Amino acid sequence: MSTLKGRIALVTGSTSGIGLGIAHALAGAGCHIVLNGFGDKTEIEALRADIAQRFGVQTAYSDADMSQPAAIRAMVTDAQALFGSLDVLVNNAGIQHVAPIEEFPDERWDAVLAINLSSAFHTIKSALPGMRQRGWGRIVNIASTHGLVGSAQKAAYVAAKHALVGLTKVVALETAETLITCNAICPGWVDTPLVRRQIEARAQAQGIDTELATRELLGEKQPSMRFVQPEHIGDLVLFLCSPAGSSLTGAALPIDGGWTAH
Ligand code: NAD
Q1: CA-wise closest residue to 92 among 70, 117, 122
Q2: For residues 80 and 197, what is the distance between their CA atoms, to the nearest angstrom?
Q3: Facing residues of 234 across strands?
Q4: How far is the centre of ligand 1, averaged over its atoms, from the C-alpha of 204 (Å)?
């Protein structure tokens, strides 16, 4: 992955789960990394220092809230000022809310749309001019199987992820003649805090243990009956950033243990 050595990568929502897996993969390929996300400040500092030390790259952290356009723009500008460029942008930050539409709180709808969709619009809009100037860039939007198919009780999430796939296609078309690509990755179930909360809610609602709730959750959707691993998503991001990925743009790539083969 020599093309990535010394490149600058920003991964939103990278203090946990899939985003952290992607940050590790990119750092392993030699990228300097800007982390972003919420969490305990001491733990985040430990994550940042660990990546720098383990992979011998430079790292920075932004606490920008992905629901706040001005903070998003400042995060991108600061990253460019600190490192001189921004070459790889991974829009990963996301939240979930599960409820039937009649009971779906307006405020949760707005938050899911802002963080899972609009944040990507703002980061891309801010980062693209620099990528165009330098003639190279990779934009990866972490959508979901829910960017391709629906599930009950996830109105905001499914709407946001479908729209993120649409945004991906438009950016790919607008950059098609450059060496910038834009793709969406559509993971199935990945064992992260976001999914843990859904498993625990299911276990509690049905009065079952979390092991059975996990089997039920996988059994409903994911034929492999195994979670997708964050490292596998990291490897897919590396492929998209590689020379072999240069003709792959505007795609929505499932990595879902067969979920969308149904
Ligand atoms: P996670 O909860 O482990 O991580 C979410 C990350 O986003 C964290 O770093 C969190 O701090 C950050 N974040 C949340 N709100 C934020 C905000 N307002 N501003 C900045 N950062 C914020 O979840 P995850 O499962 O790793 O999810 C990562 C992405 O992958 C999300 O977009 C999610 O929709 C998507 N995804 C997850 C799964 C899955 O099964 N876990 C499947 C498909 C897609």
Answers
A1: 117
A2: 35
A3: none
A4: 22
